[in-house]
Structures are given as structure tokens and as C-alpha cells.
Amino acid sequence: MQREIVSTDQAPAAIGPYSQAVKVSGNFLFMSGQIPLTPTGELVQGEVRVQAEQVMKNMKGVLDAAGLTFDHIVKTTIFLSTMDHFAVVNEVYGSVFTGQPPARSTVAVAGLPRGVDVEIEAIAVY
Predict the structure, then answer these.
(1) If the chain, 126 residues long, is cut into consecutive pieces of 10 residues, what is the mean pLDDT of each piece?
(2) Beta partners for 59?
(3) 58 by DSSP, 3-state: which?
(4) Alpha-carbon span 92 to 56, nearest angstrom
(5) Burial class of 29 by CB neighbour count within 10 A (0 to 12, 13 to 18, 19+)
(6) Is the dihedral of CA 71, 73, 75, 76 positive or negative?
(7) DSSP, res 11
(8) Which domains does the chain have, with CATH numbers?
(9) How far is 116 from 105, CA to CA, in rounded Å?
(10) What's the predicted TM-score (pTM) here?
(11) Rounded to the nearest 5°, which phi and psi values hold at 100?
(12) Which helix (H) or strand (E) holds 106?
């Protein structure tokens, strides 16, 4: 198996021992969960809509660095601090995945890094 680490300054650097994304032979990209940090590492606070928009910008930055687009994503997992945020995050998500959307799971969790309200990870095929 061949692996290629994808790293970009268009999304926040990893805040732990992980990569922003990894391309592997077989034409898969596994994107780590993106939270609402700016590429400079500043935490985007406030309403969940603004947080979700930053997450999508970060995802785009990683996809761009890998030479891919949102159309390459085949599966996402959305982690929310509460399911009360589902409708708003779903609206932001839908504004990015306008064609045939990928498969998706959405779960509420007990906590997310840095106390954010949304995190999204993805798998893409290229």
C-alpha cells in the first residue's frame, strides 16, 4: 500500500498526532475530522452556522491540496455537540453538496475538541 500525506496551510494544522488527510493506493482519501479552526489556528466561536461554514472551508482547503473537490467525497460523518444543531448544519452541508450527496452519518457526542459544536470527517475516491 502506498500512502501520501496531504497537508495544506488552507486548513488548520493538526492539533495532535494525525494528518489532515491521507491518500492511499486504491484511490482513496481519508480526511481527518475538521473543526471550526481557521487555517491560522484561531477558533471560530459563535453560532453553529458560522462554525459549520468554517468546517466546510477547511474541508475545501484539504480537498484542494489533494487535487479533489466535494464531488469526490463518498462518505462523511458529522459529529454534533447536540442534535439541536442538526437542521442548521444540514443546511450549510446541503449548500456544499448540491448534486448527488455522499453517504452520511450524523451523531451527537458528549464532547468535541476545543468545545466546538461541529466536526466533520470524510472519505473521498479519486
Answers:
(1) 95 94 95 98 97 98 98 98 98 96 98 97 97
(2) none
(3) helix
(4) 8
(5) buried
(6) negative
(7) S
(8) 3-125 (3.30.1330.40)
(9) 18
(10) 0.96
(11) -85, 105
(12) strand 103-108
